Amino acid sequence: MSDWVSNFPLVRHIRELREKTGGSASIGWMYDEPAFLLYALAKWYKPELVIQTGHLWGKSAMVVLEALHDGFLMSAEGMMEEEQDADKKLGAFIAANRPSPPQRPKVISIDPLPKGVPDSDAGIRYLREYDPNFEFYQMKSDEFFRAHGGRLAKEFSGRRIMGIVDGDHTWEGCMQDLESLAKLGAQFIVVDDMAWLPHLRRAAGEFGRRNGYEFFTLPFFTGMGLLWRRGEISISPKVRKFPYSLKEFFYAIGGLGLINFARRLKHLIVG
Fold this sequence. Notes:
The chain has two domains: 3-239, 3-Layer(aba) Sandwich (Rossmann fold); 240-271, no CATH class. 49% of the residues lie in helices and 13% in strands. The protein has helices at residues 3-7, 9-21, 32-45, 59-69, 88-97, 120-130, 141-155, 171-184, 198-211, 246-270; strands at residues 49-53, 106-110, 135-137, 161-165, 188-192, 213-218, 224-229. Helix 8 (171-184) links the parallel strand 4 and strand 5. The longest helix has 25 residues, at 246-270. It is globular.
């Protein structure tokens, strides 16, 4: 492996964490590609509170902590040295619709018993050394939400909350975690293992319909589901009083076939 990859901070920290904990030989964990997607999602959303059910040896927790603390896109430092020059209206819309970097984000990880991890305590110490604000609770997620959900809901009211559901992989366990996160105020929730365990996809879909969340599934690897609470978006100044065009209306009724038919009819009439 190249020196560049080995020295990449996220890669280095993940390897150090696994070495300290011994990893887990008896159960799987998040593959690298989904882990980098999780990193990007945390960068994009910039949550002020992240609650993760399921910890194992801490790989996904480290990914989120790195995303929130490595400085990239969390300050003036980005891919370009200067601000992107854009249309003034577009620039104003982006400025209003861009989440500000969290000042002191909190990541909470919950797991009653990390399975097959030789030294999970060493991993917790490593994560706390990286971020003293990191919290780990060795208990069942329903116990955690009963004990701490009300306090956190008040503390982070009106702030960006992200949930990661990757703990109890039963239908009931997944649904309970989702309901608890919604009650706490989570606007954005990631659910792992959707393709590997289809009942989790059904649980997340039903939860989304009942609780006003948009739901989208990514099928590769073990599958990842994304839940986004409706209404958590700025309204573009380009939106009209009636937001749908005639073409959108025709498509809703009969798809592209109806749109093409209307075009041909217009051509025959106009000549």
